[in-house]
Specification:
about 120 residues; mainly beta; seven-stranded mixed β-sheet; four-stranded antiparallel β-sheet; about 55% strand
C-alpha cells in the first residue's frame, strides 16, 4: 500500500501562485506515476497533471498548460504541483494519486487539499 498526504492548499488571489506537495509513504517503490486531480463543487473530478516517477515525463491538462508545473523529489518520495497565474476557476479540492504501472488505474489517493482562488 502507498499512503499519500497532500499539503499546501489555501486561499490566494487571482493571478497569485501556490505550491502543493504530496508526500508518499509505504510501498513507494511500486509507484510508476503520480498525478494531480481536482474536483470543483458540483463538477466531476478532472485530471490536472501527472509525472512518471522514473524518467520525470509529464502530462498536463490543456486548462493548466503553461501555468502549472508538476515535479518530484524521488529521494523524499514527494511530488509537487506549482500553480502560477491562478484563476477563480482553479478553485477546487486537489487530490494526488499514484498508480503502479502504465495501463492501470490510479488506485492510491490522498485526502485532498482545498485551493480557493478569489477574484
Amino acid at each position: 500500500q502507498v499512503q499519500l498526504v497532500e499539503s499546501g492548499g489555501g486561499l490566494v488571489q487571482a493571478g497569485g501562485s501556490m505550491r502543493l506537495s504530496c508526500a508518499a509513504s509505504g510501498r513507494t517503490f511500486t509507484t510508476y506515476r503520480m498525478g494531480w486531480f481536482r474536483q470543483a463543487p458540483g463538477k466531476e473530478r478532472e485530471f490536472v497533471a501527472s509525472i512518471t516517477w522514473t524518467d520525470g515525463r509529464t502530462v498536463y491538462a490543456d486548462s493548466v498548460k503553461g501555468r502549472f508545473t508538476i515535479s518530484r523529489d524521488s529521494a523524499k518520495n514527494t511530488a509537487f504541483l506549482q500553480m502560477n497565474s491562478l484563476k477563480p476557476e482553479d478553485t477546487a479540492v486537489y487530490y494526488c494519486a499514484a498508480k503502479v504501472a502504465a495501463g492501470y488505474p490510479y488506485d492510491h489517493w490522498g485526502q485532498g487539499t482545498q485551493v480557493t482562488v478569489s477574484s
